[in-house]
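Worked problem 6 (solution included).
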Amino acid sequence: MKINRITYFRITIFLLLSLITILVLAIKKSSLTYHDITLHSPSGVISAEQMPLYKSSNETGIYVLKGAIEKGTYAGGNVQIIPDDEIISLQLNAQNISLDDIPESSRRDYKNGFIFNLGEKLTVGENKFEIILRDTGGMMGISIKSSRSENLTILLFLTIGVLISYIIFHLNISLSFKLLMTCALLIRIFYFTITPPDTRTHDYTEHLEYSEYLSKHWLPPSIENATGGAYFHPPLYYYTGAIVLKVSEQLGATNKQILERAQQGLSLVYSLGFVFFGLLILSQLTRLHKNTFFSEGINCKKNIISYKNFFYVGKNRLGKLINYPQEFITINKDIDEPKKIGFIGEIKKNGLFLTIGAMFIFWPSSIIHGTRIGNDPLLYCLFAASLYYIILWFQLDQKRDLMIASILSAATIITKANGEVLIAVIALIGLYKMIKAQRWAHYFKLSILPSIIVLIALTITIGPGLALKIQGKRDKLYIDNINNVSSALQVGNTAANYLWFDTKIFITQPFTSPWDDEKGRQYFWNYLNKTGLFGEFSYSSQLSTNAATVTSALYLMMVIYIIFGIYHMRRETIKQQAVLLLAGFFLLAGITYMRMTFPVNIDFRYILPILITFSALYYTSIMTFLQLGATRLAGIGIALAILFSISNLLFVFGI
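Solution. The predicted structure is:
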């Protein structure tokens, strides 16, 4: 009996979901859980703690950590111990565990720690432990996790990746789009598997604390809390984090490390949303240029038809045929009724989209921030979705698109205040439409409901800070912790800091640091662009270091390429990208203003959605040179993008 494709698809989905369920149960049974954890400081102060322990220490010297470990049935004896700063001794069930075979460097390795086989000394059920740690200042703590549980967690997310990839390849979208989405998913899952929740973070404990608070109370904290921690942020992301936390607990997850991994998984989903809408925008841009080529040399009227309808080549959003003029359908026959061209044919036909799309999805900072616990990944996702619908409204002038764009923009704003940039973009696009059409009353009425939606979002986001400022409890509306910032982090705030770019430092120093002048932190553009590639982190492997140097050089060449391309672009080409250009401008203006009023380095993560603008400009630069007949310049642009993607992959694989 033959199995049809639909039945085969359903069986495969069922098997993958069954495997995921089994892995979830196996992780629960192979985990280590902790209770009654106490920390004894060098001065004798005793505090209740949670595992993994990671906190700022007020004292230096010897700390004693006591508590109980519950070993799951299938946890095994191998554990990964990651100390900060150094583990001196370990006692388990009143027995001393010798660490003599562990090199001193491993006992001080706060990044990877060491794998240790406790064997039968760690029994199923409760085990009392005592750990002596040495801390020399700064952050301190320790993490002990089951190697088997960690491996099963990695296998779980790989299986989820296979499931999502399988679904993607059965969606009714182009093969090139499927390839890019699948590659974006796989590289992010790879990064997820090698990156614990407490690695390359920005205040992740404070973000977790906010989500934990909402999971217990479900109502936002009082506005007085907006003076510290993550509580000054608007609440949308933290509600989603609270839901994931509750669901994880309902599924039996009590281990803090597993709960944090689930929060990382949430960020991974949001990162894929950012990639999806970013690729959607780039895909539409490529189709716009294809339509322009097809209508090239016909007449002005047909060219306008092609321009207005580039989002719906032959079909609308619901898959229904659009009633195009007959001559347009004839000109675009190959687009309206695509033939199956196979894998190689797809690569040849959409090679440029695949090249620019790969540059976009393999951008290092996008991957690095894609699994980081915090509100940034949701901001990126909603920002990109908002841009997509603003572009639709700009091109097609449909009320439905404006309403969706307004709702998504409001959601972006109540995720993080950076989303307010979208208000300026929508307002200027609306003003342009109003002046051009001379339909004042129509656009005024059209703007009422979107304005109310955005105003509600602004009230939720700005309200607490504004109330505290009026009461005199905050000095600034948005940033209120300048007094808590170390003086060592503060940088110069003169014209030279903004007007100079040190090319030598940018290329020869693979990474930057908010603490080190030699890595270019004093120059605004050096720091912004370098963190735009790799964040404000350092990476120890030789492969990552060398790849970062190559990527930095290629990036500068690409920036010059875009500048040269913009100079030669036609006005109509620039106009078509008005939404992306406005978004890019306001993001840059916003972060420049922040840097001027808050004289410490503000890194690129605040404006990461500008990568969509960068990728679009790079694509149109290549197309501009093709239109001008400068095929060698176009080829150079393509070669740079391919090398850039390869170098970025090597960087990520070397982490």
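Discussion: Confidence is low (pLDDT under 50) at residues 291-338.
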